[in-house]
Amino acid sequence: MEKKRNSLEEDIKKNALKFLEISKDKEILIISHFDTDGISSATIIIKSLKKLDKKFSVKIIKSLDEQFIQELPKDKIIIFLDLASGSLHHIQNSNLKNVFIIDHHEISEEIPEDINIINPELNKKEKISASVLTYLFCKELDQSNKEYAKIAILGMIGDSLEDKINELNDKISNNGDIQKIRGPLIYPSTRPLNRTLEYSSNPYLPGITGNIKGVLELLREIGLNPEEGKYKSLIELNEEEMEKLIATIILKYPKSKEDIIGDIFLLKISNRLEDARELSAMINACSKFGESGTAIQTCMGIAQAKKKAEAIHVRYKQLILSGIKYAENSEKIIGKGFVIINAKEEIKDTMAGTITSILSHSRLYEEGTIITILAHSEDKTKISCRVVGKNGRNVREILNNIITVIGGETGGHYNAAGATISQDKEEEFLKILKKNLEIEVIKIQ
Length: 445
Ligand SMILES: [Mn+2]
What we know:
Layout: H1 8-22, E1 28-33, H2 36-51, E2 56-61, H3 66-70, E3 77-81, H4 88-93, E4 98-102, E5 115-118, H5 130-141, H6 149-158, E6 178-184, H7 193-198, H8 212-222, H9 239-252, H10 257-260, E7 261-268, E8 273-275, H11 276-288, H12 292-299, H13 303-329, E9 333-335, E10 338-344, H14 349-360, E11 370-377, E12 380-387, H15 395-406, E13 409-412, E14 416-422, H16 426-444
Parallel strand pairs: 1-2, 1-3, 3-4, 4-5, 10-11
Antiparallel strand pairs: 6-7, 7-8, 9-10, 11-12, 12-14, 13-14
């Protein structure tokens, strides 16, 4: 039977108090997800625990599995950030005593008594990033931690929740380290526009992304010319130029207006304001290349690390562009309302999710289409699944149903989910997936 739940605020308060109480004489192990939201969450808690003079260590991971949980130290307080809501039974079976989970992913099972959890899925299902939840938790530990609001915003943007930021106004304080301007959501908004447009993969702009000729044509249309060989950056445009750019882009991509025009967030993480989307993309790139230390240090505002992160990001963007080109030109399994690309070794497994997301935002496919990419990762196959647009079927459920039959791990949200299966199950997976997708289509008609 469903228990009566507290409000999110009450959950945060209760957990913060409990944490302060039991962390008096125990070491802490922070385990966080490797994407921007997870890295932002980890950074906020690292900074907060340092202030409190706590003993702690940090592990950044791609995904959580049973064995990893079994091997965790039983004598430490474990804080899971931006993950673990899908692994409650493994945690319960592991005999861990002091577990805190700060997460926003879907929960599909009963919460065991002795697990301390903050997850809006248990309250009003507010769409909040793990970084904001961690920020609110840390603010309860010490009010001065409100200075980390900018890092919380970074996590929101990493998880594409920027349209929910306004709703958090009363929760997130702004001390001038956060600025917002309206414009096309291409980034970095702080670099010359020609480069920004050419490398824009999110949003993916057909005819512009990866197409220098198209870029220069667009800039000419707006009446922008290079000054001393250099184009202005987005945030250097005057009002009239910005209006013109917005109008031209809307004209070119009328259907994508909402996705392309919006709020550009500038955050002061190091010594100057930077484009939050760029920072987020840099941090993601580091993690995807196995450089989570660089990711955390960049998020902490360490200049040296940021330099390294920038170089990694350049390489990453090149890989994305070649991945998209592969996905566009490769052989696909196409059915009514779905597209499956079996990329095997052709797309790096850590890039598959990103490329699937980009395709789902590219307007190449109709609203509601389910895009699935399979990519090899050693002896495993990683599966990424996305729905085009806001109205579609629950892909997490679709993947879950198959994994229950053939084995493996799943995670994610209703519109963006992933799974890992053993490679010898690939054919079986594809067979069931095709069958289920076809059945699902018939059901909703
Ligand atoms: Mn997240």
